[in-house]
């Protein structure tokens, strides 16, 4: 039987991997996948707490987070396609028309 | 100080209560109907969608006005339509109305006349309204996402334009990143208090004082502050703002700099004042630092901008800083000042952007400050409007911006934050430089090139008229509006 702590530590590690990935990766799709990793680690936190507290609110929250993540993915990929059509690249280094 | 408390005169509604989300229901039904209508009309008729959405906004506004003073709670207390949320809903509707008035002319000129923009603006407004009336972290999160997803599309709306693509993609990547932080904060607060209702969080903390030393609760508060600071563009989480504001279509920049910022403040205030009053000593210190950083970074960077959209982006960061001063004070005067300021900021900022829309040409936005040389003589009326907006942004009486700043700073002084108010006033003085520089170009330089006759469409003229009225009337007779703002928070 794993304790609440193991789940929280796992989700904190996943969240950090996601956050670091967003900061160091250069491909927009990989960055987006790292963001999804962050959201899913939050889902894990919610479910662990929900089970531990014996309270359903956390699990309901997770459903909403998943729905929102799907909507975000649709919009985000569409924006990437629009950018790719004009620049033939989805490297964030090429997001450089506007600076300071 | 009892602010934003659950109104005593209504029973906590257990079930569904559609009266509590009436404005949201009306506006989303209209937006969905417009999406359908959009399929059946040709591109010359797209402007009708704009007129229909204006009618929808007016209808919703009446529903907001009729709800004033009669708070409604519903959906197991996850939404509460009190005066506080109604005041903010009014602000959002005003900003959506003014934005739609300037959208049509811009879309025709840039040849991206796609009807989807109007439903998207309405959906973003629905998201903002949900954020303002959400009393559950879940509702606030959903409202925020409805808003953000619509805004990502609006920022990248001109899909043939590289700058617009870049703005949309940048906003999306950073917005989704910050949502992760906000959500993690919500999860930790849920874990340490066992509930997501803001009022229940507060009562759990007051009954179990031990939880205040729980690092999970403190981390949750900090992470939520990061998430909200991103939405209101507070330094050091403001890096996306100038790029997104510069690249997005100008009417959308006007919208983004006003509505979502106000919505961010509404949710920020609700969560921190209602759910976490026990940690006020901690978060007001944090907000103090944020406010000083935001004002200073915004103003100092704005000083050396030559692109007027970028300058107004930094100025909007600085304005978020002034509003944070009132929030830090956390008393009735400061908080009412936040509400008053956000409404008057909607008028002055969208007004200024309306002029920027006018000066632009297809493909050539004429965004440089030097493009305004001689503008004041060539177009005396438009020049006067622009001067009024700039005076108000700089906080010079008799404009509404002055009264707003006065209340924000006097709230801070009453709460004992004298230094914060002094830094705010100094910042405000520094900001006069870059606002007046535009006026120097408008009135004291000869035009470098021949101005074409500017075609002012009737809707744009109406927007300018409403904005000038919205800046001058509360600036000269602020009593009524201040009274409403006071009632909004103390009820």
UniProtKB/TrEMBL annotation, chain A:
Q: Name one GO cellular component term.
A: plasma membrane
The protein's matches in Gene3D superfamilies, at most eight in alphabetical order, are given as: 1.10.287.3510
Transmembrane stretches, start-end: 6-24, 29-49, 61-84
Q: Which GO terms describe its biological process?
A: ATP synthesis coupled electron transport
Quote the catalytic activity from the record. Answer: a quinone + NADH + 5 H(+)(in) = a quinol + NAD(+) + 4 H(+)(out)
Q: Which Pfam families match?
A: Oxidored_q2
Q: Which UniProt keywords apply?
A: Cell inner membrane, Cell membrane, Membrane, NAD, Oxidoreductase, Quinone, Translocase, Transmembrane, Transmembrane helix, Transport, Ubiquinone
State its Enzyme Commission number(s): 7.1.1.-
Membrane topology designation: Multi-pass membrane protein
Q: Which GO terms describe its molecular function?
A: NADH dehydrogenase (quinone) (non-electrogenic) activity; quinone binding
Supply the enzyme class, top level: translocase
Q: Where found, per UniProt?
A: Cell membrane; Membrane
InterPro entries this protein is in? NADH_UbQ_OxRdtase_chain4L/K, NUOK/Mnh_C1-like
Similarity comment text for this entry: Belongs to the complex I subunit 4L family.
State the function annotated in the UniProt record.
NDH-1 shuttles electrons from NADH, via FMN and iron-sulfur (Fe-S) centers, to quinones in the respiratory chain. The immediate electron acceptor for the enzyme in this species is believed to be ubiquinone. Couples the redox reaction to proton translocation (for every two electrons transferred, four hydrogen ions are translocated across the cytoplasmic membrane), and thus conserves the redox energy in a proton gradient.
Q: How does it assemble?
A: NDH-1 is composed of 14 different subunits. Subunits NuoA, H, J, K, L, M, N constitute the membrane sector of the complex.
**Protein name (Swiss-Prot/TrEMBL):** NADH-quinone oxidoreductase subunit K
**Species name:** Geoanaerobacter pelophilus
Q: Which gene encodes it?
A: nuoK
């Amino acid at each position: 039987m794993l304790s609440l702590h193991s789940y929280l530590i796992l989700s904190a590690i996943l969240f950090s991997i996601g956050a670091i990935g967003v900061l160091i990766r250069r491909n927009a799709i990989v960055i987006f996948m790292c963001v999804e990793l962050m959201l899913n680690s939050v889902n894990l936190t919610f479910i662990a707490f929900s089970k531990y507290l014996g309270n359903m609110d956390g699990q309901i929250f997770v459903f909403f987070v998943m729905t929102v993540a799907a909507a975000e993915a649709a919009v985000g990929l569409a924006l990437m396609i629009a950018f790719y059509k004009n620049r033939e690249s989805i490297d964030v280094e090429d997001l450089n028309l506007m600076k300071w | 100080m009892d602010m934003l408390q659950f109104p005593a005169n209504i029973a906590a509604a257990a079930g569904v209560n559609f009266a509590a989300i009436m404005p949201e229901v009306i506006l989303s039904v209209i937006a969905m109907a417009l999406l359908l209508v959009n399929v059946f009309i040709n591109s010359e008729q797209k402007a009708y969608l704009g007129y229909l959405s204006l009618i929808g906004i007016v209808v919703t506004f009446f529903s907001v006005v009729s709800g004033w003073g009669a708070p409604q709670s519903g959906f197991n207390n996850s939404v509460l339509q009190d005066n506080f949320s109604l005041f903010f809903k009014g602000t959002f509707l005003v900003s959506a109305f003014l934005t739609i008035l300037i959208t049509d002319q811009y879309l025709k000129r840039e040849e991206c006349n796609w009807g989807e923009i109007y439903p998207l603006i309405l959906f973003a407004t629905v998201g903002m309204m949900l954020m303002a009336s959400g009393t559950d972290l879940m509702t606030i999160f959903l409202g925020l996402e409805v808003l953000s997803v619509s805004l990502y599309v609006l920022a990248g709306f001109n899909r043939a334009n590289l700058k617009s693509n870049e703005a949309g993609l940048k906003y999306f990547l950073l917005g989704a990143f910050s949502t992760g932080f906000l959500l993690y904060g919500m999860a930790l607060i849920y874990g340490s208090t066992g509930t997501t209702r803001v009022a229940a969080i507060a009562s759990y903390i007051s009954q179990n004082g031990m939880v205040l030393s729980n690092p999970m609760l403190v981390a949750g508060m900090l992470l939520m502050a990061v998430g909200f600071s991103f939405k209101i563009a507070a330094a050091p989480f403001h890096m996306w703002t100038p790029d997104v504001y510069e690249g997005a279509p100008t009417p959308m920049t006007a919208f983004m700099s006003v509505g979502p910022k106000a919505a961010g403040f509404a949710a920020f205030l609700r969560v921190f004042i209602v759910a976490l009053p026990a940690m006020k000593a901690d978060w007001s210190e944090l907000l103090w630092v944020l406010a000083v950083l935001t004002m200073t970074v915004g103003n100092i960077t704005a000083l050396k901008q030559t692109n007027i959209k970028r300058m107004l982006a930094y100025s909007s960061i600085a304005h978020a800083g002034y509003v944070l001063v009132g929030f830090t004070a956390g008393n009735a005067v400061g908080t009412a000042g936040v509400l008053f300021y956000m409404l008057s900021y909607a008028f002055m900022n969208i007004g200024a952007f309306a002029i920027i829309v006018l000066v632009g040409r297809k493909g050539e936005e004429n965004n440089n400050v030097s493009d305004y040389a001689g503008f004041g003589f060539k177009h005396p009326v438009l020049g006067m409007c622009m001067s009024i907006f700039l005076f108000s942004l700089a906080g010079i009486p008799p404009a509404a911006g002055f009264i707003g700043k006065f209340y924000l700073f006097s709230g801070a002084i009453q709460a004992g934050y004298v230094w914060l108010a002094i830094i705010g006033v100094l910042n405000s003085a520094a900001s006069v430089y870059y606002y007046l520089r535009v006026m120097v170009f408008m009135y004291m330089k000869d035009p470098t090139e021949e101005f074409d006759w500017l075609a002012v469409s009737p809707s744009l003229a109406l927007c300018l008229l409403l904005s000038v009225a919205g800046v001058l009337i509360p600036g000269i007779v602020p009593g009524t509006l201040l009274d409403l703002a006071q009632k909004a928070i103390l009820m």
